[in-house]
């Protein structure tokens, strides 16, 4: 069974640009969560989607957005990039949600903002 | 490889010895706890979980202990191996139906051959 796939793995952007990251969950998983990981703040929750609906959102500005498609694939978008957005963005999937079993994480998309 | 958590607490253990990694949580309403392992360049990997109605759970070479009185969680790894070197995170889910995990800051475990 294929794991969680995130694309791209690495990308470099400049301030003010926008970026879209993609996540393909494990087949059959309907919940997709996104996390931002930085050395200073650790793993911080961005949002969680289930059946195309956002069920929970973390404390990030509106520049961070996401969506989920009918095939459970998810994208997140960051607009007007700032230097502080440089981070590893992790996607995790689960059959029904984070509090009902383990999350399966992808290897992340490492974003560098110059 | 990439470096995660440059200012993490660290723990060094001789290969073959047992290790204990500790985690404190603050929300008494948390009812689900998980330990994750993150190797360099990879995403976190599930190790073991425990619900608040239990105080101990065992897996293969790993044991999680939960002390709700002092809001403390620990991960014990028996007979450590070089492959156990990684960053270990505890995570909690607070409030049933709140579909997110709150992660601790992590501990970097180094196994000395």
Structure annotation, total helices of chain B: 0
What's the story with the biggest beta sheet of chain B? 6 strands, mixed
Into which percentage range does the β-strand content of chain B fall? over 45%
The value of Rg of chain B in angstroms is: 14 Å
Uncertain residue segments of chain A = none
Helix share of residues of chain A? under 10%
The gyration radius over C-alpha positions of chain A equals 13 Å
Shape assignment of chain A? globular
Task: Describe the structure concisely.
The complex is a heterodimer of chains A (about 110) and B (about 110). With about 110 residues, chain A is an all-beta fold. Chain A is about 0% helix and about 55% strand.
Describe it.
Chain A is mainly β and 114 residues long. In chain A, 0% of the residues lie in helices and 53% in strands. In chain A, the strands form 2 sheets. In chain A, strands 2, 4, 5, 6, 9, 10 and 11 form a 7-stranded mixed beta sheet that branches. A 4-stranded antiparallel beta sheet of chain A has the order 1-3-8-7, with no helix packed on it. The N and C termini of chain A lie far apart (37 Å). With 113 residues, chain B is mainly β. In chain B, a hairpin with a 4-residue loop joins β6 and β7. Chains A and B meet through β4, β5, β9 and β10 of A and β3, β4, β8 and β9 of B.
Topology:
The complex is a heterodimer of chains A (114) and B (113).
Chain A: E1 5-7, E2 10-13, E3 19-24, E4 31-38, E5 42-50, E6 53-57, E7 64-68, E8 74-78, E9 87-94, E10 104-105, E11 109-113
Parallel strand pairs in A: 2-11
Antiparallel strand pairs in A: 1-3, 3-8, 4-5, 4-9, 5-6, 7-8, 9-10, 9-11
Chain B: E1 10-14, E2 19-24, E3 30-38, E4 45-51, E5 56-58, E6 62-67, E7 72-77, E8 86-94, E9 102-103, E10 107-112
Parallel strand pairs in B: 1-10
Antiparallel strand pairs in B: 2-7, 3-4, 3-8, 5-6, 6-7, 8-9, 8-10
